[in-house]
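Lab notebook: predicted structure, single chain.

Context: the supervisor wants predicted structures on file for every construct in the current expression panel, including those that have not yet been purified. This is the next one on the list. No modifications to the sequence; it matches the entry in the shared construct table.
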Amino acid sequence: MKNLIKILAVFIFCAVFKAQQTEVSVIKYEELEKRIQQEKDKLLVVNFWSTTCGPCVKELPHFMEVNAGFADNHKFKMILVSLDRLADKERVLKFIKNKNLTAEVLLLDDIKRMNTWIPKFEKDWDGNIPVTLFYKNGVKVHFNDGEMSKADLEKTIKENLQ
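Prediction complete. Output recorded below exactly as produced.
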């Protein structure tokens, strides 16, 4: 029994370690837009955040709990889009590790064109974060401006996964 527990502990450690990213893809708006369209068979949750945004940091543990809860659902995917500066890429990687982020994290290096791409995602988005967008079959189905509670996140996902 002791050996079984040790093996299980090693397996869990490896699974958690493997789930964390060791590199962050740096992308531009057009690449993110293509990525959203490629996930046509899924409900895609796209959260825009930053390591320096208090409400963003506060809501991320809820997002990770919900992401873990839907991990076995092949029709669900979560992407966390960091709006940190490219110069802060190492801080983002450290943040991923320290906060145990298991969803895919992308670094959107396109701050100079914010006024161009923000309204393409959502006309009512004023540029503040956090913001969460929900896409089903590549089409936006919900926009949440501001911090999102775990309950609201789960409710929105369940309503749109059907």
